[in-house]
Structure formats: structure tokens, C-alpha cells
């Protein structure tokens, strides 16, 4: 996979990546509807993608909840002299935006690179060619289990991460500002549309990340150098997709409010 040296070459490379990603998405959708479901492979990927990411997500989202509430408490104390409502200020933002989006970014970083590296290594060692020769489509045998696992585990990780952010924020509010936990846990400010928005984002990230990462792996060429480029492309493109989807879904929900 040669690096583009001109603007025209860069544009052509981006166009090729988009076309290949769309083709992998189309094939994956076809095999989701028509192909067989290899549940052992799906659960193995769910363990790799979800279970092994739980600690990472809990730590990162926990610190996020602590930081948000610490800063919100400082500002509330300076402006109005009362930090009792920092839970009501922070939780809708965590539920609909920061929880799903930061979880998606972490999955894109940890899982996207792993998917691209694994599939890319299979490409450069000609294992994918062997699958094709045996009439085993890569989209069904390689992409589909990872896609289904991500569709299940990213919303689950998002829920776990939001829970970690909630309890970490509650602890900071109680110890730093004396906020009563019962007052902090005021869920009246979190409306149903906030929950829907957060879960729709998580589901969208769970679809986009494995497809983009798998496409990057399938495009790998040229040995270990090509695998390295594929992992870089996977994390950059997956992270960009998370940001774009976040903006698009937030815009649609804003119109519906």
C-alpha cells in the first residue's frame, strides 16, 4: 500500500478506501441476513472485544465522571455558591454524548487496531486467499463475527462506562463538595430521548468500527509494513467515523427535540 505523494493521489486513495468500505459493508449486510451464524466465533470475538475492554472502559469513564464533576463543582461553587446540582448538570451530557462517544473512541483504538492487524496478517500470509479458494467469503468468516460481537458489546460497554462515570462523579461530588448522593442521583433531568440518543450512537459505532477496521486489514499489502499501515488507517478512520456519527446523530436528535 504505497503512500500517496500528490493531492490527486491522496484523493484517489481516499476514494478507494470509501469504495472498499462500502463494498465490505454491503457484503456484511448480505451475510448477516442470509449467511450462517457461527456463534462460537461470535462469542470468542465478544470476549476479545467486550470482556477484555471492560477494565479499560471503567477506568477511563470513571476518571471522566470524576473530572467533569470536579470542574462542574468548582464552577458552580464560584458562580452560585451551591454545588448540589452538579449531578443534574453532568449526567445528561454523559448519557447522550460523552459516555457513548468516548467508549466508541476507546473501542476504535483498542479493538480497531486489533481487527486490522489480525486480518492484515492473514492477508499478507495468504490465508485470506486460501479462504477465497475454498469458497469461504472473508466478509462472512472474518468480518461478520467481529461485526456481530461489536454490535452486542459496544452498547454493553457504553452502559458499563456510563455507570462507572455516574458512581465516580457521585463520589467526587460527595467528598469534594458535600453533595448528598440522593440529590446527585436526580434522574429526572435524564429524559428518554437522552437514553435513546446514547444507545443509537453506541450501536452506530458498533457497526462502523469493525467494518472500517476489517476493510483496512483486507487492504493490507507488502508484509509487516503493510500491516502496520493498515492498523494506522484503521484507528484514524474509525475514530473519524465516531466523531462524524456523533455529530450526525446529535444533529438529528436536536431537530427531533
Task: Give a description of the structure.
With 257 residues, the protein is mainly α. It has one domain (38-256). It has helices at residues 7-34, 39-49, 54-79, 86-124, 127-133, 138-177, 181-184, 192-218, 224-256. The longest helix is centred in the middle third of the chain and has 40 residues, at 138-177. The chain is elongated and about 70 Å long. The termini are far apart. 42% of the residues are buried. The mean pLDDT is 88.
Mean pLDDT: 88
Written as H for each helix and E for each strand, in order along the chain, the element string is HHHHHHHHH
Main sheet attributes: strand count, strand direction, barrel closure: none
Query: Could you tell me the strand content as a percent range?
Result: under 5%
| Distance N to C terminus | 45 Å
**Quaternary organisation:** single chain
Q: Return residue spans where pLDDT drops below 50 for at least 5 consecutive residues.
A: none
**What is the number of E strands?**
0
Secondary-structure-based class equals: mainly alpha
Number of helices: 9
Count of separate structural domains: 1
Helix content: over 70%
Radius of gyration, CA atoms, in whole angstroms: 21 Å
Bulk shape: elongated
Features of the shown structure:
84% helix, single chain, mainly alpha, 257 residues
Describe the structure concisely.
The protein is mostly helical. The protein has nine helices and no strands.
Could you outline the blueprint of secondary structure elements for this entry?
Layout: H1 7-34, H2 39-49, H3 54-79, H4 86-124, H5 127-133, H6 138-177, H7 181-184, H8 192-218, H9 224-256
Helix pairs in contact: 1-6, 1-8, 2-6, 3-4, 3-6, 4-6, 4-8, 4-9, 6-8, 8-9
